[in-house]
From TrEMBL:
Residue span, Tyr recombinase domain: 145-328
Family: Belongs to the 'phage' integrase family.
The protein's name: Tyr recombinase domain-containing protein
InterPro entries documented for this protein: DNA_brk_join_enz, Integrase-like_cat_sf, Integrase_catalytic, Integrase_recombinase_N, Tyrosine_recombinase_XerCD
Organism encoding this protein: Actinoplanes palleronii
PROSITE patterns: TYR_RECOMBINASE
Amino acid sequence: MSGAGKPEVMQAAMMLLRQMGITPEDLLNTTASGVPVPTFAQYVPIVAAAVGPGSQRMYSTYWAKAVDRWADRRIDSVIPSEIEAAMREIQATALRRRNNRGGRSAAEHFISAMRCFYKRAVADGHIAEGANPARKVPKPARLTSTRSALADDRLAELTAAAGSSGNDPELDSLILRFHIETACRRGGLLGLRPMDLDVEQCLVLLREKGETFRWQPVSPTLMAFLQQHCRERGSPADEVLLRYRSGKPVGRRSYDYLFTRVGELLPWVRVQMISAHWLRHTTLTWVERVYGYAVALAYAGHAETPNDAGTTARYVKATLQEIATALSGLTGEPHPLALPGNLPVLDSAGDVLIGEYD
């Protein structure tokens, strides 16, 4: 029979601890590895310094909320119910923008931030994997996106409005053209550098979500205007390519200004909250309809991470030549990497999807 719990055993244990200079609180505040368990205020800066820039940008607000709530508490003292209660409060108090959907996005991001936080705590030996409280709180179900492909006439309206208004229509037209041709995410263009241009093969190196890298074909016309932009605005070879006329690099806010201004000219842009990501939907939908799912998957940069497509997608990857062929059909321009014998695909009016860039 075990002696655990007997008064004489407990007294002997307490005496031994006193002789060693250790208190019961010391045992509670230390992991099995002997490392003291940090508080939220102590550990959040460590986690923030360890993650990439994208995670910092996405999660820093929510880690700050955790510090506000539990600053002096040890990270192993918070239970799943407390995390879920914090998530509900964040969801209820989320900023009500025009595209607000009940605070679900804020709630989802908070849980993602806490899972990232506690994943680091497990790796650093502060808590055991089975004691990770963030993994025991389910994320809110993600609602279906309201984005969809734009019709040809709407796309033409959008590009015409951007290219005929504002104080830098050349820059705005270049941004839209780049997104239409490449179907890249916003970060892909904002991270583009002059040194990322393969002029001979008409390829650009995109660095996107999840620190991924991929070469994406662009038309000879777009490549020429990217080079012209670099020359005229003095873009350093290893720094941001897109520049204002002043030479200042373009940032994420420029997209907000662009679509807000166009929305003042085109009410449907404002009402539907059109953004650059709608252009990604538009191009990828067109590529899938004309060239098939495998090509659209690769065009989007998803070829290495199939999800709902199943395992088969791993064996039907599209080549760079097939992506270039789809781009040639999209723009109506020959591409040096396009497969031979493939003519541009015309729309019902006999025109290619994208007109001349000017």
